[in-house]
Design goal:
By secondary structure, the protein is α/β, with parallel strands linked by helices. The chain contains 7 helices and 7 strands; from the N terminus they run H-E-H-E-E-E-H-E-E-H-E-H-H-H.
Length: 207
């Protein structure tokens, strides 16, 4: 069985859940990518999972997933696609279809070079801005009209060094701000699920 066949095999039965929101963090699987700028989407989802007392250990539709309940009882599905960043769309849309999650209840969390380290931006829709992972989600969904949460990683790299930059850990000077942003992103994702996008934007886009 090939890699993609294994990733997308049904495996265990899907968790018994009717999620009211699907929160997807983008990143690359494997320990060599942990802690890199490109994996802050994964980090934010893991932080939220920790806060809600769950862990993303089940595999389904090419992603690591966990179901959880927000403090107000909202049922959530947390996911980290395992197909590498540039092929994040397949697992995301497969989970949407399996659980009947509409695009306006999907939140994609990812790194953004256009924002300073520590900055966050929630948006209801828009282009990918050169982010290949987000572009793949849009291509698979056939639309750019889905909420997204951008986590700033800065752009302090020399010409031609973008790939090395995003696949490297944060510098010592950036590390505290990045950690704070990941924690805040987990709060923002939870606010989206519980209170809706506009309320979450009003609260978190002012920071």
């Amino acid at each position: 069985m090939g890699l993609l066949s294994r990733l997308f095999s049904r495996g265990p039965a899907a968790p018994a859940a009717s999620p009211e929101a699907l929160l997807v963090g983008l990143g690359n699987p494997g320990p060599q990518y942990a802690g890199t700028r490109h994996n802050v989407g994964f980090a934010a989802i893991d932080r939220l999972a920790d806060a809600l007392g769950v862990a993303l250990t089940a595999r389904l539709d090419g992603a690591l997933i966990a179901t959880a309940h927000a403090p107000d009882g909202t049922e959530l599905l947390l996911a980290k696609p395992q197909t590498f960043m540039n092929r994040s769309g397949g697992p995301t849309t497969a989970l949407m279809e399996r659980y009947g999650v509409p695009p306006d209840r999907l939140l994609v969390v990812y790194d953004d070079l256009a924002l300073d380290v520590g900055a966050l931006r929630l948006r209801p829709k828009g282009g990918a801005g050169g982010h290949n992972g987000l572009q793949d989600v849009a291509d698979a969904l056939g639309s750019t009209e889905f909420p997204r949460l951008r986590i700033g990683v800065g752009n302090s790299f020399a010409p031609g060094q973008q790939v090395d930059y995003v696949l490297s850990p944060f510098s010592d000077e950036q590390r505290d701000a990045a950690a704070d942003a990941v924690s805040l992103a987990a709060d923002a994702a939870l606010a989206f699920a519980q209170d809706g996008l506009q309320a979450a934007m009003n609260r978190f886009n002012r920071r």
